[in-house]
Amino acid sequence: MLRLTDVHCHIIPGVDDGAKDLETARRMLRREYRDGVRRIIVTPHYRKNMFETSMETIRKQFGRLQAAAKEVGEDLQIELGCEYHTHGEMAKCLAAGERPTMAGSSYVLVEFSSRHSFRVIWNQVCSLQLEGFWPIIAHIERYPCLVENQDYVRQLSDQGVMIQINAGSILGEEGFSVKWFCRKLMKEDLIDLIGSDAHDLKDRKPNLGACAAYVEKKMGRKYARKIFVTNPGRIRAD
Question: Which residues of 116-133 are buried (b: 16+ CB within 10 A; e: fewer)?
Answer without folding.
Answer: bebeebeebbebbbeeeb
